[in-house]
Write a structure and sequence with these properties.
The chain is of the alpha/beta class and about 130 residues long. Helix content is about 40%, strand content about 30%. The chain has five helices and seven strands, in the order E-H-E-H-E-E-E-H-E-H-E-H.
Length: about 130
């Protein structure tokens, strides 16, 4: 009998951070971790695979590379969160950000399927938040 392999999608524009998260969760959990570094690619992947995703780890300050506003990247992590919640209220999402949790909580509803942690975070912080949702 095969074990049920869970699929975790890591949406993070910093490749080093994304790789560290991937190594941490693959070491701790029996899962397949997929890394996506672009908001537009992430939304396309989520739309196509929403029913196969068991957990989303989302950098809330994720830029979308093809949108420019006054020569600055437009931050779309929040849009990814809102659009993903529009597709599924049940998908567990861990928000990671340098933005303080109190600021995040003022912008979005943190419910039983959503958690947030601040960067930099420890292994224990990430494992604890994932365990609450996974």
């Amino acid at each position: 009998m095969e074990k049920n392999i869970k699929k975790v999608v890591i949406i993070e524009d910093d490749p080093d951070c994304s790789e560290i998260i991937k190594e941490m969760i693959e070491e701790k959990y029996y899962c397949e971790a997929i890394m996506i570094d672009d908001a537009a690619d992430a939304m396309a992947y989520i739309k196509e695979n929403i029913s196969d995703i068991d957990l989303l780890i989302l950098d809330i300050m994720m830029p979308r590379s093809d949108i420019q506003i006054e020569n600055a990247k437009y931050e779309t992590g929040m849009q990814l969160f809102v659009n993903t919640r529009g597709l599924s209220l049940e998908l567990p999402i861990v928000i990671i950000s340098v933005v303080r949790n109190t600021e995040i909580k003022s912008l979005i509803t943190i419910d039983s399927r959503t958690g947030s942690i601040n960067k930099p975070f420890s292994n224990r912080d990430l494992y604890s938040k994932i365990s609450e949702l996974f």
